[in-house]
Automatic annotation (TrEMBL):
It comes from Crateriforma conspicua. The lineage of its organism: Bacteria, Pseudomonadati, Planctomycetota, Planctomycetia, Planctomycetales. This is Glycosyltransferase RgtA/B/C/D-like domain-containing protein. The chain crosses the membrane at residues 12-29, 41-62, 68-85, 106-128, 183-205, 238-256, 276-296, 305-324, 384-404, 411-429, 449-471, 478-503, 523-541, 553-573. Keywords: Membrane, Transmembrane, Transmembrane helix. The keyword Transmembrane applies. Signal peptide: none annotated. The keyword Membrane applies.
Length: 701
């Protein structure tokens, strides 16, 4: 009961601090963007995300990264914003009413409400009300966050992937830090996805695309397996695509506004993008380079210098902590990748031999590209696949021909150059084909090859729809009909896949079935929740007069629902956590495995020599767990054991994973019977205890 009370108390503290931060950030955003709902929403989210990263970087660098310090700092920033930036007098943003006089506008806004509601329902059903099951989330996205909470330090190396940039993981931290468990981790990518829809819509507004086609573009981007899977996990490819389009949108606003203001929002998006993951650096540099060229062409050296200065400042503030940490701890900012020319040790080639052939530039051939095309069609649906292919193809003539001859179409040229640059980045991205040389394992799973290029899909879709809208007359009408048919197919396929009624695309359906296999009777919740949320939204927008008269009652009702949801989530998370993951991973719960190990420590340190070790941390994050990065030799195994001094070692009996990262651990344990006692108590796992760590009364052979 105490845990539930604490979670409810933290909810109040969280709501107050976040409310102050959001209201202050909205005042700042209102000075930077037009008086439009999606524009304000997108700008506010970018500012809030930047504040989260700044606060985390500051306290993480000092080693004082405690949840309460983090939350109070956000509240202080919100108060400062409210004092520095007075409220605008432009009134509420336009675009709030759903039922307008125009039938087309009513249909568009109703469609928008249904699209957003379906995403929220998807997250509530498969993200918040289910335990995490995504491979990468269990391997490092979630464990990294839990290690931060345990140690209050961004520099700890307890997770094998401690070195990855963590701007998206900080969003997870924002949702779960302070609570007794990670039960709200499923909300990580919800607002990232909503930000993507907003910036896609805003980018197409700049291209004068009609509202119906803007809605079609948003549906096309969102009705993909990448968005559907990452909405309910903690993966970060969705964040890369979102921040790429956000940076492009706000940068063009700055260019089109004759550079009246400093490009704060575009630079923030660039800084955040730099800190998502390594391959995102390429997309960030593409935006920086293209905008610099356009600024030089239209405003001269002064505008270019302003743009580059803002970008460098944002990168240092919003991403510098990750690369500086790697440099301080391992001597290379892109660890494990080093540069021998600069005297930096390079472990990447040893960890992934032949990895340079995992890119399409070096490893691609006709057969590879044929399989890749089918993967894109299967994972992204017909409209996004066609939009991506069309965008890439038309970017070449638009980028080259209209650069000089059609100055009025400079926005299309801008999008074309971004698409060309993004195509080059995707071609050079590692692991698109495989992670182990010669296996083509990533291409065989299809989803992974596509998610690495989802940023290209997003910007190419924007270019494709902008190009279609640019063509008037019969050609434009024909293209509009084609787009409508393809988007309709996407919606139907997306809905039927989510409800398990079709096997297309196969990979996505397998993932969804694994998530919801213990709730097969609840498949109907997804469409019902979508309709319910949309109706609530419509009634709220149309009945704003009633709401203003009963605001206190509505606020109390909402607060009651939130408190009930927090209490229920807290209780169910801790009650069923061990049993859920033991059914997936072991014959018994981790706690019984640890008890059976009989070590002479109340809180033993566990060395997890397997991949998806998140469940071993415990529902309260109560266990001290480390996962080594790379142990290619028996000497490396001994070195890691000596460094971490574990009380218990948990590994596979037989490591069948492609990378064979921990294949030598069982051999090393067997070679040292005088030092370790094996306890086979965890199904397919081998559990070993150093003999000097055993309880003194343990005399078992």
């Amino acid at each position: 009961m105490f845990v539930v009370v604490w979670d409810l108390f933290w909810t109040v503290l969280w709501a107050v601090s976040v409310g102050l931060l959001v209201s202050g950030s909205h005042r700042f955003a209102a000075l930077q963007v037009p008086d439009r709902l999606t524009s304000r929403f997108a700008a506010t989210l970018v500012v809030v995300w930047s504040c989260v990263v700044l606060v985390a970087s500051f306290w993480g660098f000092l080693g004082k990264f405690h949840p309460w310090v983090f939350q109070l700092s956000l509240a202080v920033i919100g108060i400062a914003f409210r004092r520095w930036f007075p409220p605008t007098r432009n009134g509420r943003p336009t675009g709030m009413r759903i039922f307008s006089k125009s039938g087309r506008q009513r249909a568009v806004r109703l469609g928008s409400a249904l699209m957003v509601s379906s995403m929220i329902a998807h997250v509530l059903m498969y993200g918040v009300s289910r335990y995490p099951v995504d491979w990468d989330s269990l391997a490092y996205h979630l464990p990294i966050v839990d290690h931060w909470i345990q140690t209050a330090d961004l520099f700890n190396q307890r997770c094998a992937f401690w070195y990855v940039p963590g701007n998206n993981e900080l969003v997870t931290y924002f949702w779960v830090a302070g609570y007794s468990g990670d039960f709200f981790a499923g909300l990580t990518n919800l607002f990232v996805a909503l930000l993507l829809l907003c910036v896609v819509n805003e980018a197409l507004i700049d291209a004068r695309v009609p509202a119906v086609m803007r809605l079609a573009a948003c549906v096309s981007v969102s009705a993909t397996s990448v968005v559907s899977r990452q909405l309910i996990s903690q993966e970060n490819d969705l964040a890369v695509a979102t921040l790429l389009v956000s940076a492009a949108c706000f940068a063009w606003r700055w260019l089109a506004d004759n550079r009246q203001r400093l490009p704060y929002l575009a630079a923030m998006s660039i800084g955040l993008l730099f800190g998502i993951k390594y391959y995102a650096i390429g997309y960030a540099l593409v935006v920086v380079g293209v905008v610099a060229v356009f600024a030089l062409r239209t405003g001269g050296w002064k505008s270019t210098a302003t743009w580059l200065t803002c970008c460098v400042t944002a990168i240092v503030l919003l991403a510098g902590v990750w690369y500086g940490r790697n440099w301080l701890l391992e001597g290379t900012p892109l660890f494990p990748k080093g540069f021998k020319v600069l005297g930096m040790a390079d472990q990447w080639d040893a960890m992934r031999p032949g990895n340079r052939f995992s890119t399409l530039m070096r490893g691609g051939d006709a057969e590879i590209f044929r399989k890749l095309s089918w993967a894109w069609a299967e994972q992204d649906g017909p409209s996004t696949w066609l939009a991506t292919m069309t965008g890439v193809c038309v970017s070449i003539p638009i980028g080259l021909y209209y650069w000089w001859s059609k100055p009025k179409q400079s926005y299309l040229v801008f999008l074309a150059w971004l698409t060309l640059g993004s195509t080059c980045v995707y071609i050079m991205t590692p692991n698109v084909i495989e992670t182990v040389f010669g296996t083509q394992n990533m291409l065989a799973m299809r989803y992974h090859s596509v998610r690495f290029g989802f940023a290209l899909a997003a910007i190419a879709t924007v270019l494709c729809f902008a190009t279609v809208a640019w063509h008037r007359g019969r050609l434009g009408q024909f293209l509009g009909i084609v787009v409508a048919v393809l988007v309709g197919m996407d919606v139907i396929l997306h809905a039927t896949v989510a409800m398990g009624l079709t096997a297309w695309p196969t990979m996505f359906r397998i993932e969804m079935k694994s998530i919801a296999r213990d709730a097969g009777e609840a498949w109907f919740f997804w469409p019902l929740a979508t309709v319910d949320i949309a109706l609530i939204y419509l009634i709220a927008c149309e009945s704003k007069g009633w709401l203003s008269r009963h605001m206190r009652t509505a606020g109390i009702a909402c607060a009651g629902l939130v408190f009930a949801g927090v209490a229920y989530a807290s209780l169910t998370w801790h009650r069923q956590y061990e049993s859920f993951y033991s059914a997936r991973d072991t014959r018994s719960t981790w706690q019984s495995t640890i008890d059976a190990a009989m070590v002479d420590e109340s809180e033993p340190r566990i060395m997890a020599c397997f991949y998806r070790y998140y469940s071993l941390l415990g529902s309260y994050r109560q266990r001290d767990v480390v996962r080594p990065l790379y142990m290619p030799t028996l000497d490396a195994v001994q070195q890691e054991i000596h460094q971490w001094q574990p009380d218990i070692i948990v590994t596979f009996h037989d490591d069948r994973h492609w990378t064979k990262t921990y294949a030598l651990v069982p051999e090393w344990i067997q070679n040292h019977p005088e030092a370790f006692r094996q306890r086979d108590t965890a199904g397919r796992f081998l559990v070993a205890v150093p003999k000097h760590k055993e309880k003194s009364h343990d005399v078992s052979p």
